[in-house]
Design brief:
single chain, mainly alpha
Length: about 230
């Protein structure tokens, strides 16, 4: 329904294009540096363990299926790494594994934004399912109050996206510091490769947040136009 509204494409379209570009960029950057090994010869799993240990975090490391499905589960203090990262001995594998280990360091050091994001997960999961029916019902029966209620619930998911940004950037910052201090990354070329892989990944979170904010702006515009 919204895709037939020119305003949707004017407001949201450019950011959707940006998100598509960043997604492609992270895949091509990962593939490029997946072909470049590191002098230490460490696997991603070994690097993740070393980075977490150096940062004072105790974690379990598991292999999980999928491509770039890597994540840290704070509930069980578990790093789950995709096969290309877990077993890889490349700059890409080391960079992604170290980034996830950076989250475990955040957890061990009580990084407030990580705690806030974790606390938001249950509310965000419910809100992501509930907001659209509320908004759509309000739209069809012309009750703007119900539309605004749906928008308010959707705003929680936008807030989650915004809180994610400092969490992800800080995890990469911690990862790069520990990689350098421990000698896992030992040359300027390796450090530059890690920077490019993590930089490309970070842009996907920025694009995701911009898309979410653009959607929020569009829904507010749609509700306000119905209220005139």
């Amino acid at each position: 329904m919204f895709i037939f509204d020119p305003r949707f494409w004017l407001i949201v379209g450019p950011f959707m294009a940006l998100a598509a570009w960043t997604s492609l960029r992270v895949k091509t950057t990962f593939a490029r540096f997946q072909k470049v090994g590191v002098r230490t010869g460490m696997t991603g799993a070994q690097a993740a363990a070393a980075v977490a240990r150096a940062g004072g975090a105790e974690v379990t490391i598991e292999r999980v299926g999928g491509f770039l499905s890597d994540h840290y589960d704070p509930r069980t203090r578990t790093l789950r790494l995709s096969p290309d990262v877990y077993d890889g001995r490349s700059i890409s594998a080391i960079a992604v594994a170290a980034h996830e280990a950076g989250h475990s360091i955040q957890h061990a050091q009580d990084y407030p934004f990580l705690a806030f994001r974790s606390a938001m997960v249950p509310v965000t999961m419910i809100g992501s399912q509930a907001w659209f029916p509320l908004f759509l019902i309000g739209l069809f029966i012309n009750i703007t109050g119900l539309m605004y209620l749906g928008i308010a619930v959707f705003a929680l998911t936008v807030l989650f996206q915004l809180v994610t940004l400092p969490v992800e950037f800080d995890a990469s910052r911690r990862a790069k510091i520990v990689l350098a201090e421990t000698g896992i990354v030992s040359t300027p070329e390796e450090a530059a490769g890690v920077e490019k892989v993590l930089g490309a990944a970070a842009m996907t979170y920025v694009a995701g947040a911009l898309v979410a904010m653009a959607h929020l702006a569009y829904y507010i515009l749609l509700a306000s136009s119905r209220n005139r």
